[in-house]
Amino acid sequence: xxxxxQNKKISENIFLMDVFYDGEIFPGQFFMLRAWDTDPLxxxxxxxxxxxxGVVSFLYQVVGKGTRILSELQDGDDVSLVGPLGKGxxxxxxxxxxxxxxxxxxxxxxxxxxxxTNYPDSNVRVYLGFSDESYRVDQxxxxxxxxxxxxxxxxxxxxxxxxxETVLACGPxxxxxxxxxxxxxxxxxxLSLEARMACGLGVCLGCNIETPLGNRKVCKDGPVFSREExxx
Length: 232
What we know:
Layout: E1 2-11, E2 14-20, E3 30-34, E4 44-47, E5 50-52, E6 55-61, H1 65-71, E7 78-85, E8 96-101, H2 106-118, E9 124-130, H3 137-141, E10 146-151, E11 166-170, H4 173-182, E12 189-192, E13 208-211, E14 214-217, E15 224-226, H5 227-230
Parallel strand pairs: 8-9, 8-11, 9-10, 11-12
Antiparallel strand pairs: 1-2, 1-7, 2-6, 3-4, 3-7, 5-6, 12-15, 13-14
């Protein structure tokens, strides 16, 4: 069990939970969170929003019973963490473009902050799309060289990619497919997939996807895949 430092609502149905944790976490990885005994049956996969000074942060959306229970936890409560799990974003020592849609923006913040810490001279342009209300934009602006925001439209319509830039994105499937359509084939592209997960360890096969290279497990082989791995 891990101790919750803070759990607060930051937007409609959007919460930020800070939990004390000691270990190594890479941008793009996730944890399985649980704060109940038997109902719901399964833990919930939540991506890492940030990690520093012994505190891991989870930015999550309340969409069902499990995340509702998580949102009701108080400062000082315990939560079960299994992780970090999955294959995160690659280390890119150059200019990058980040594209996030909705709660898919969550894992991009740790990626942004980690990248600018390791490569302070690199240029990072961030595109954030929301359906009705934005959140955490100011935090992204602290580290990004440029933040482009869209509310209620399609963030992919605002995306431009220059030669030599690597693109990393996270969001709903329809957005990721649109991203693959606007990013030139000569630019490296990595996509973090959203999927329902039961175990998070690649055992239950509940998050299998079909790829040109055969079936892959989002929880173990991903959640980050290159465009070539997905055939996009």
